[in-house]
Amino acid sequence: MYDTAILIGRFEPVHNGHLALLRRALDSARQTIVVMGSAWQVRSPKNPFTWQERAAMLCDALPEADRARLHVLPVRDYYNEARWVQAVRASVAQQVPADARIGLVGHFKDATSSYLSAFPGWTLIPMERQGSIDATTIRDAYFGATPATATAALAPLADQIPASTLTALGTFAQQTEYTTLQEEWRVLRAHRQSWAHAPYPPVFVTVDAVLRCRNQVLLIRRAHAPGKGQLAVPGGFIEQRETLWQSCLRELAEETHCAVSEAQLRSALQSVAVFDHPDRSQRGRTITHAHYFDLGDMPLPAVQADDDALQAQWVPVAQLTALEDRFFEDHFHMLDHFLGLTQGR
Questions:
Q1: On the CB side of 96, how many CA atoms lie within 13 Å of its CA?
Q2: According to the model, what pLDDT value does residue 115 have?
């Protein structure tokens, strides 16, 4: 018997395979900690539910006595495994004594399960996969339906989904967020189908501009799906006859009409960082090159939204952490990389 059993997952949404792992954790230890991944992510077809909604699905599927032994720890996606592992360990350390005997419940289903090997000192409690269901299948059936037909669309999968999850999905389908996510799901599906017959999966290359001035950052609000209405830094796909630098300048100009010359930007360039986590974009394997500029204390350049931007605005750095759950893809973490937004949090 362990002092604490750890179960790590996203649970988007909770299904019977998740519950089997959770049952194993509860049977193996005095208390169970669920590390809830993708916390504070903006809603998307891959991450449609807040961590609180997913925690409620888990708890509602358990008897009252087991709920008392369950603690949910939300952890953000850092798109950096070493930093994520450090955050998980730090969060767990706040809940258990240093000498606690800890077990980690899980099974190696594919490359995404490699994290199970990243916690030396925690004993792996292996478990075979339970059933054939996965959350992606549920989400595709769910978002391929309509508010009126969502329950019927899930009926063929209902025997593999807890009643608490089915109830939550039925309720959510009546909210405006559901139809917004449906549009996102359709756009992403069409995008992936457009290159489905390529001889091998393509790798997309993009650029982004993190522009700082007077301790404010230039952000856009995206005009189209995916990410319609979400905050982002200016950027986009590189074109065939462009260098990364040329693409960065073009995207910045097209989306914001930022009144800064190329010479000023070249002088203000502090660094370029590559963001290449395999899961950073739902559009496919997308590697971006983020250019970080600091214009110092010069007057804020005039900006005007255009092209793929619905709005362009200067936002104080001090306000960014409160906006974390409104950012497109990993753009908050891009800002965090350059500005240290989550240090000490």
A1: 27
A2: 82
Residue 128 three-state SS: coil
Q: How confident is the model over 180-219, as pLDDT tens digits?
A: 999 999 999 999 999 989 999 999 999 999 999 999 999 9
Among 178, 199, 209, smallest CA distance to 301 is for 209
The answer, yes or no, to whether residue 333 has pLDDT greater than 80, is: yes
Q: Which residues contact 257 (CB under 8 A, 6 or more apart)?
A: 302, 303, 304, 306, 312
Identify the CA nearest to 274 among candidates 254, 251, 252, 292: 292
Domains identified in the chain and CATH numbers: 2-177 (3.40.50.620), 204-339 (3.90.79.10)
Tell me the C-alpha to C-alpha distance, in Å, between residue 24 and each of 4, 104, 234. Answer: 12, 10, 46
The pLDDT, as a whole number, for residue 129 is: 77
- Please work out, in degrees rounded to the nearest 5, the angle formed at the alpha carbon of residue 86 by the alpha carbons of 83 and 88: 110
Amino acid 103 reads G
Give the C-alpha separation, 31 to 14, whole Å: 20
Half-sphere exposure (Cβ direction) of 155: Cα atoms closer than 13 Å: 6
Contact 211, 312 (CB under 8 A): no
What integer is the mean pLDDT of 237-255?
97
Query: How far is the CA of 266 from the CAs of 92, 263, 339, in angstroms?
Result: 44, 5, 19
User: DSSP for 64-115?
Assistant: HHHHTTEEEEE----S-HHHHHHHHHHHHHTTS-TT--EEEEE---SGGGGG
Residue 337 exposed, middle or buried by CB count within 10 Å (0-12, 13-18, 19+): buried
Taking the complete model, does pTM exceed 0.90, yes or no? yes
Question: Residue 226, preceding bond cis, omega within 30 degrees?
Answer: yes
